[in-house]
Design goal:
This protein is an all-alpha fold. It has helices spanning about 25-50, 55-75, 85-105, 110-130, 135-140.
Length: about 170
């Protein structure tokens, strides 16, 4: 009789798979990536290509935002695999609003450029949480066991495993 040597191992909770995310949610994600690509792209690419408009720090910012637009285009095809991009967008928008925009707003020192950035970040804070499949994020990024850090070395050897020879 065949004995299953894993029968006493507790079963892990089933992770949320791509099939557990509805087609409607996938379309909403694709629309969100398209919105990010277009809305960020119409500002980032012209500013990036016209070097007269920026100093080196603006160049870093515009390069990063242009890269976000390219990755958002990839997200249209692979909406679940590119979720970290939306999480990054959500995170930096919240951090920027709290750390940079809030003091400027309280001092009433908001110029037109900053006002546009504030509007875009507030829109991101409304749209992104609605589009992101949080159950999928929790199951696949927060609860799921991470990738190993080191090569696995087994100290237990099953009776039918050949002996290990370390040279």
């Amino acid at each position: 009789m065949h004995s299953d040597r894993h029968e006493n191992v507790p079963r892990l909770k089933r992770s949320v798979t791509t099939t557990d995310v509805s087609t409607l949610r996938l379309y909403a994600l694709r629309a969100t990536y398209m919105l990010v690509a277009v809305a960020v792209g119409v500002q980032a690419w012209p500013a990036l290509l016209d070097q007269a408009l920026w100093n080196p720090m603006h160049g870093v910012t515009n390069s990063l935002l242009a890269a976000v637009t390219l990755m958002a285009i990839v997200g249209i095809r692979y909406p679940l695999q590119m979720l970290p991009l939306l999480l990054l967008d959500l995170t930096w928008s919240a951090l920027w609003l709290g750390s940079a925009a809030s003091p400027l707003w309280s001092m009433q020192d908001v110029d037109a450029f900053t006002a546009t950035r504030i509007r875009n970040c507030v829109i991101a804070l409304v749209i992104l949480p609605a589009a992101i499949p949080w159950r999928y994020v929790r199951a696949n990024y927060l609860s799921k066991r991470g990738d190993r850090w080191f090569e696995r070395r087994s100290f237990y050897r099953a009776p039918d495993d050949p002996p290990h020879h370390n040279h």
